Amino acid sequence: MASGEDPFGCLKLASHECLISQDRRTVCPRCQLSRKYFCYTCYVLVAELEGKVPEVKLPFKVDIIKHPKEVDGKSTAAHAAILAPDDVRIYTYPIIPEFSDPSKVVVVFPGSNALSLEDLSKKQQGLLKGKAKNTEGPHTTTKESGDSENGREEQQKDTVQDVQKQSEEVGEPRVKRQRTEEKPSTPFERVIFIDSTWNQTHRIFNDERLKGLQCVILKDHVTHFWRHQRDKPDTFLATVEAIYYFLREYHDIFVGAAYDGRFDNLLYFFSFMFQIVQKSKQEKDRVKEP
Q: Where are the alpha helices (DSSP H) in the chain?
């Protein structure tokens, strides 16, 4: 990235003016510890910023499992919890939430059974097709089979095709159909992210309580985190970046409509702090100049 270039310039971010004007530290309204913008242990804004910072609504629940050695003040997990308070929860390992239906949970980690979101959608479509075929068998008499959404959709398609055929036979104009791109239903309701360095993450991932969960991997995205992991490539993302890019890939695959920036404010604090770090580096570089 060229010096001075803003990697977040194309995002639909709320104004940072309230953060810029917050020129002094204050206290957390819960723990009363000194904080500038938000409390990274209580996951709440300071009183002066309440109602001024955007909130993001997510299409599923996000559970962040944080390694106990991960420094709270350096982790970006708090950004997600504060900006999407209804949908994001943070747990410090060994605490792991219970899942009522593990089949509806995925963990973002390159495990042995890991799939991209695109491949996961294909797998889901394959399962749906398999169920649809079963409903046509001579022994499928359950209510679930008879009332399945796929069964109704197939009946509707057959009906429209019959009408079209009849119209053509009598010389009438072809029936116009509203063609909507059918997208696969989302095969998960909760997404787990592990918040730790790469060397620490295996301890959490190998926990028995996470065994058997479907693993998901992201496409390669370049990080803009100012705290790089030593000897790791620039595709190792900060936690809030990983959540953001997961949401973007989810939208492209499972929603399909043109992206409208609905998740961009998840990087609200991240982009602001990136600018502060970049400005500080530029000032230091100017001082070093002869």
A: 17-20, 77-83, 117-134, 143-146, 149-169, 198-205, 239-250, 268-288
DSSP H or E run through 210: none
CA dihedral (202, 204, 205, 211) positive or negative? positive
**Long-range contact pairs involving 38-43 (C-beta distance under 8 Å, separation at least 24):** 38/78, 38/82, 38/269, 40/72, 40/73, 40/75, 40/78, 41/72, 43/78, 43/81, 43/82, 43/85, 43/90
Higher per-residue confidence, 290 vs 207: 207
Kindly report, residue by residue over 89-116, the tens digit of the pLDDT: 999 999 999 999 999 999 999 999 999 9
**Residue 11 backbone phi and psi in degrees, to 5:** -85, 155
The SS3 assignment for 129 reads helix
For the entire predicted model, the pTM comes to 0.78
Contact of 189 with 60, CB cutoff 8 Å: yes
Q: Pull the structure tokens for residue 57.
A: 């609504």
Q: 158: Cβ–Cβ under 8 A, 6 or more apart, which residues?
A: none
Cα–Cα distance for residue pair 195/281, rounded to 1 Å = 26
User: Which residues, in sequence order, are bridge partners of residue 34?
Assistant: 27
Residue 61 phi/psi, 5-degree rounding, is -90, 145
Q: Whats the size of the chain, residue-wise?
A: 290
Answer yes or no: are the C-beta atoms of 21 and 27 closer than 8 Å: no
> How far from the centroid of its chain's Cα atoms is residue 57's Cα?
11
**Burial profile 159-178: b = 16 or more Cβ within 10 angstroms, e = fewer:** eeeeeeeeeeeeeeeeeeee
